[in-house]
Amino acid sequence: MTIQVIDPRMPAPAEPPSLAKRPASLAGTRVMLFDNGKLAPTYGPYRAVFDVLRDVLTERVDDVELLAHTDDLLRGDGDRLDGVADWVAVQRVGAVVFALCDWGVSQPTALVASRLERLGVPTSVVPCRSWPPRRAWRPGFP
Question: Model-level pTM?
Fold first, then answer.
């Protein structure tokens, strides 16, 4: 008779993810404002997030080029999300700002942002007031 023993110890933790190098300035940089599907009027006045950010960046940063892109990241699977990140990376952007993270779209947004960070593209994620809960925040999240 064979007895199978299960090791109850947790596996060794993975190495913490590393973030892409941040530029000293956004001057002369192409920045993508990425709407993950939550800035639609049906969700409320959140579109103002990118309106304000666009105004501030063009006023304060010399020669910044802003690109707008919308993709509902709740559609599809992990392979599609990898494809989205790969597509963004070939747009030659120096940074990506994602909005708006709440409960539903936060996971796919984090997956795309994390892949972009691994590809060397710095990202920033704009949360709504209720996300992420303090207990869910982890160092290394863009």
Answer: 0.81
